Amino acid sequence: MAAKFYAVKKGRKTGIFRTWSEAEKQIKGYSGAIFKSFLSKEEAEMFLGEGVSAERNEKTKENVIEAYVDGSFDRRKGVYGSGVVLIKNGQIVHQISRPGKDPRYLTSYQIAGEVFACLGAIKWAKTQDFTTIIIYFDYEGIEKWATGMWSANKPISIDYKKYYQDISIGMQVIFKKVKAHAGVKYNELADSLAKKATEMG
């Protein structure tokens, strides 16, 4: 397994840590923690902003994508759905509507859908070479399981935390909570995509 460098930008103590256990101490239970794991020290340093030039800052802005994620569940069919709307410069650039029916996650209902929507958004952003993604979500576990603020006890949260740590390597993820069913345009669209996914499943 390749060595990892854990960079904590916002936490009890900031800096680069060589083990997850040390990094976790700085962010677990810390509201608004910002951290990421990298395969090289140089990438970790750039994430923390060390030696970043104005030209690189401008390039970094170009590499930011926004994603609205949501989940849905059809109890009759036993299918959860994931909906993602990806936004760049105020324009929709991609949408994801994907069903799932893994029996390990069915008891988590729509939460499973939102979890996989988040992971799907990050995965897509990485394939498009974005380095930062802003995730807009309405279920707070999306952020708190990922950052360690909540303990992962059920299959969905345990696997989500593991997958998130792997898939977010080299990607800065910023979480922003929105109120569910409050008329937030793209969140409502993500919700409709999630519902559509359950119909396909």
Describe what you observe in this structure:
The chain is α/β, with parallel strands linked by helices and 201 residues long. The chain is 39% helix and 28% strand. The protein contains seven helices and eight strands; from the N terminus they run E-E-H-E-H-H-E-E-E-H-E-H-H-E-H. It has a five-stranded mixed beta sheet with strand order 6-5-4-7-8. A three-stranded antiparallel beta sheet has the order 2-1-3, sandwiched between helices. Helix 4 packs parallel to helix 6 and helix 5 (141-147) crosses helix 6. The longest helix has 18 residues, at 110-127. Residues 51-59 have low confidence and may be disordered.
Topology:
Blueprint lengths: L4 E6 L4 E3 L2 H8 L6 E5 L2 H8 L5 H9 L1 E11 L4 E10 L2 E10 L9 H18 L4 E6 L3 H7 L7 H13 L4 E6 L7 H16 L1
Parallel strand pairs: 4-7, 7-8
Antiparallel strand pairs: 1-2, 1-3, 4-5, 5-6
Helix pairs in contact: 4-6, 5-6
